[in-house]
Amino acid sequence: MAEREWAEKNYYADLGVSSSASAGDIKRAYRKLARDNHPDNHPGDKNAEDRFKRIAEAYDVVGDEKKRREYDEMKAMLASGGLRGFGGNAGSGFPGGFRQTQADFDVSDLFGGDGGFTSEGGLGDIFGGLFNRGHGPRHAAQPSRGADVETDITLDFREAAQGATIPVELKGPAPCTRCHGSGSRSGKTSRCDSCNGTGFTNENRGAFGFSAPCTDCGGNGQTISDPCADCSGTGTVNRTRSITVRVPAGVIDGQRVRLAGQGEAGPNGRPSGDLFVTVHVRGDKVFTRTGSTLEVEIPVSFAELALGDTITVPTLDEPVRVKVPAGTPDGRTLRVRGRGIPKRDGTKGDLMVTVKVTVPGDLGPAATSALRAYAQAEKESGFDPRADWAGSA
To answer: Could you read off the pLDDT of 53-71 as tens digits, one per residue?
Structure first.
């Protein structure tokens, strides 16, 4: 989630907590809402699925100490009087009575977009400093962590239902093996004298005070006197690496799996970003699912339904024997408990078996004779399959 999208979100409201809630309160609220709105508990309910995704997104931000701090600072900045010039009000606080109408306003302007604010004194400096994302070569600060990475994988239906371990290859910044990510040949850095190790310098421009990344250390707060030759002092090199993604059992099509710290490496030993894997699920020739319920349609003969029988039904692991009572109508669904899709609590959903009569295309002489005798006996018994049919006279 890019920080510019946070402006339109109220993550605390999505979790039903106040902005002053403790980390423990936020975690408890998330767990309860995630459990109540999990797609397994609301099969086929698109609204519940959307709520679940919104709750997960909210917790991903305010459940993370660093992201929550950045989110709170950004929301406070938006709510401050210094931004009242947006929305068609007079641009008090902007030199020269600057005015921008609501129709002209785009939230991307606040983050150094193409809305007319540049890195030289525009609002991009404010938010660029806030999120360590300054614009322009003079103000380019090193990020506080590596970038998040997104990728996609495709699983077979049964892999998604039972869980799988999938290798994924990623190409991008990874820690330099020679300097172990420090950027220094000796592994030693020293505090930047220009910013006293803060990574930022302050300057005043008229009525405004700006915090900009230190130009001497690039916002790092540390200087390197002996940069590593392999990474040129950045601590990272581009290379291909293999990540093992463990997909939990029961994952649904389109669900994202987060691997903390498996994204791009941060510069000079900073933490890595996260890896987000979107899972796509192929259809299956035999099974379908609704939440944690596994569904299968089994072909049977008329005799098996009329006389009753025990049939073998496939499951995700070992086949199961299912008793079909005598007189079972075509299309009836039989339930087999505990043989469905695994749930998050370790239990399994149910297997729903629908029986469908298959009519033979070619009967031999003996079978034809026997069936004719049966048909005659059926008539003599008084059975009429259309006796209660709505279209009967």
So the answer is: 888 888 988 888 888 888 8
- Residue 335 CB coordination number (10 Å): 12
Under the phi-then-psi rule, with left for phi > 0, alpha for psi from -120 to 50, and beta for the rest, what region is 218?
A: left
Given a contact cutoff of 8 angstroms between Cβ atoms, the answer to whether 88 and 101 are in contact is yes
Residue 25 lies in a domain: yes
For 28, the domain range is 1-79
CA separation for the pair 98, 115 (Å, rounded): 14
Domain count along the chain: 2
The whole-angstrom separation of Cα 160 and Cα 308 is 35
Rounded to whole angstroms, what are the CA distances from 242 to 147, 169, 264, 266, 268?
A: 17, 4, 13, 18, 22
Which residues participate in the annotated binding site?
A: 176, 179, 192, 195, 214, 217, 228, 231
What is the rounded CA–CA span in Å between residue 296 and residue 333?
9
Q: Mean pLDDT of residues grouped by 10 in the chain (393 residues)?
A: 65 88 89 82 80 87 88 77 40 37 39 38 42 42 76 94 92 88 84 82 66 75 85 88 91 90 85 91 94 95 93 94 95 96 91 94 88 89 81 53
CATH, residue 31: 1.10.287.110
Q: Which residues are annotated as a binding site for Zn(2+)?
A: 176, 179, 192, 195, 214, 217, 228, 231
Q: Quick one: 238 exposed, middle or buried, by C-beta within 10 A (0-12, 13-18, 19+)?
A: exposed
pLDDT 10s digits, 160-188:
999 999 999 999 888 888 888 888 888 88
Amino acid at residue number 226 = D
Query: What is the CATH number for 291?
Result: 2.60.260.20
Does any domain span residue 273?
A: no
Angle 23-37/46-62 helices, nearest 10 degrees? 160
- Residue 180 within any structural domain of the chain: no
First CA to last CA across the chain, in angstroms? 65
Distance (Å, whole) CA 387 – CA 39: 43
- Cα–Cα distance measured from residue 223 to residue 216, given in angstroms and rounded to the nearest whole number: 8
